[in-house]
Amino acid sequence: MTELNYRQLNGMSLAYLGDAVYEVYIRQHLLELGYTVPTKLHHHATHFVSAKAQAALVKLMETDEILTDEETTMFKHGRNATTHHSAKNTNIVTYRISTGFEAIFGYLKLTKQQDRIDWLAQWCIDQVEAGRTEG
Known about the structure:
Elements: H1 11-32, H2 38-49, H3 51-64, H4 69-79, H5 92-110, H6 114-129
Helix pairs in contact: 1-2, 1-4, 1-5, 1-6, 2-3, 3-5, 4-5
């Protein structure tokens, strides 16, 4: 497999990968909680993976100052990426912030920072579970 240079990818590409990376953590978490019915899984997953939830998590990341400088740069790279489709179920600002959130996970995956992915995904799960993303 060819190694990708994350610096050569646009923000949407990083977000594309990051969305899948984060989604796996959420799906596993929900299965571990005992959810097995697809409609229940989907309903509960939205609390973690919706654009609104991800945007709220970004605000908490900023408040708690947990992102490294490079992660913040990758967030901005994703947030500012040019997109050719419209956001569904949210406004464009929230969509762009959530794209930045996903770009962080894409960057971490491409740079093989597995421990950081594990920690950050668990941190996100903990914030949602604690109700910190409720608006």
